Structure formats: C-alpha cells, structure tokens
Amino acid sequence: MSTSSASEHTHPRIAIVGGGLAGLSLLLTLHKRGIPATVYERDVHRNSRGRLGGNLDLEWTTGQRALRENGLEDAFRMHSHHEADVIRICGKAGVPLLEHGGSDPKDESLKDSRPEINRRVLRGLLLDAIPEDSVK
Ligand SMILES: Cc1cc2nc3c(=O)[nH]c(=O)nc-3n(C[C@H](O)[C@H](O)[C@H](O)COP(=O)(O)OP(=O)(O)OC[C@H]3O[C@@H](n4cnc5c(N)ncnc54)[C@H](O)[C@@H]3O)c2cc1C
Predict the structure, then answer these.
(1) How far is CA 99 from CA 48, 75, 91, 112, in A?
(2) What is the tens place of the pLDDT at every residue in 54-102?
(3) Mutational test site, ligand 1, from 29, 41, 120, max ligand atoms within 8 Å of CB
(4) Domain tally for the chain?
(5) Is residue 102 included in any domain, yes or no?
(6) Is the CB of residue 57 below 6 angstroms from any atom belonging to ligand 1?
(7) CB 21 less than 6 A from any atom of ligand 1
(8) Is the pLDDT of residue 2 over 70?
(9) pLDDT tens, residue by residue, 36-45
(10) Where is the signal peptide (predicted)?
C-alpha cells in the first residue's frame, strides 16, 4: 500500500541546490504557492560565512519584488536602510555641500529607491519564512 501524500502525485519532486538568496527565494515562492521543494545547502548554519556579509541594494522590480510577492515587504522595510543610496559631501561644519540620489524620505513607496539590507539578515528573513525541514 502506498504511503505517499497527495501533493507528491500532483507535483514533481523539486530539489534546489544551494540555499543562497536565489535558492531560498525560489523555495519560498514555491512554498507560498503550495508546491513542495527541498533546498540542499552545504553551509551547516545560517550564520556560516556571516562575516562575508555586506549590504545588498534591492530594486523594486527584482529583489524587492521577490520579497513583496512572498509576504516579506514589511520585514524588508523594517530591516533595510531607505537612505542608503544617498551620497552627501559635507563641509567641516557638517553642512551638506553636495547631495546626490535618494528619494523623498516622506515617500512611503520604495519604488524609486534602492534600500540596502545586510546579506546575512536577508538570508535570515528568508529562512524564517520557510518550513525548517525544507532545508537540508
Ligand atoms: C560583491 C557583490 C555585491 C553584490 N551586490 C548586490 C546588490 O547590491 N544587490 C543585489 O541584488 N545583488 C547583489 N549581488 C548579487 C547577489 O549576491 C547574487 O545575485 C545572489 O547572492 C545570488 O544568489 P545565489 O543563491 O545564486 O548565490 P549565493 O547567494 O552565492 O548562494 C549560493 C549558495 O549555494 C551554496 N552552495 C554552493 N555549492 C553548493 C553545493 N554543491 N551543494 C550545496 N550548496 C552549495 C553556497 O554555500 C551558498 O549558500 C552582489 C554580488 C556580489 C559578489
């Protein structure tokens, strides 16, 4: 007698190699749409290589979209830095002499800005949004 679940009959078994930002985004996208998948990652811990972090700036139509369409827009807003693409050159007294980039801070939309988020933090947000047992 077969013990396989109904979803195994309706979906192929999907393995994603690498639990980086792309692999985890794909897993979350599938999971949110009811398609089971498993990520295989060689790092043993979410903070492995965390020191190699650095910040990523995410655009509205690419990185932000992947988060927005998978229910992580609020989390992204909370952990990203809206003003990160501003370049400001100040005089000795701290008075700005030149300012470049940046959107209106009062503008709630992130469409025209590229907020930065720490790579390790972003990986954590994605990992927290997927079932623990879907990453091996
Ligand atoms: C210096 C730099 C700056 C960048 N800045 C930006 C930016 O500002 N904005 C932006 O959107 N993008 C930026 N990027 C690009 C962004 O980092 C990549 O698009 C993104 O990380 C790709 O995700 P990934 O999952 O394909 O790869 P990665 O994030 O590199 O993840 C790959 C994962 O696969 C695992 N792995 C590898 N081989 C195996 C294996 N055989 N078995 C199991 N696991 C394996 C690794 O351990 C790793 O966790 C930048 C990239 C670099 C290098």
Answers:
(1) 37, 28, 12, 17
(2) 899 999 999 999 999 999 999 999 999 887 777 889 999 989 898 877 6
(3) 41
(4) 1
(5) yes
(6) yes
(7) yes
(8) no
(9) 999 999 998 8
(10) none
- Tell me the CA–centroid distance for residue 67 and ligand 1, in Å: 16
pLDDT at residue 49 in the model:
76
**CA pair distance 101, 118, nearest whole angstrom:** 20
Tokens of 20: 């980086």
Residue 129 belongs to a domain: yes
Nearest CA to ligand 1 atom 10: 56
- Atom of ligand 1 lying closest to residue 55 CA: 8
| pLDDT, position 8 | 57
Q: What is the pTM of this model?
A: 0.84
What is the rounded distance in angstroms from the CA atom of residue 19 to the CA atom of residue 25? 9
Measured by CA distance, the residue closest to atom 12 of ligand 1 is 56
Which parts of the chain are beta strand (E)?
15-17, 38-40, 55-57, 87-90, 96-100, 116-118
The CATH code of the domain that includes 116 is 3.50.50.60
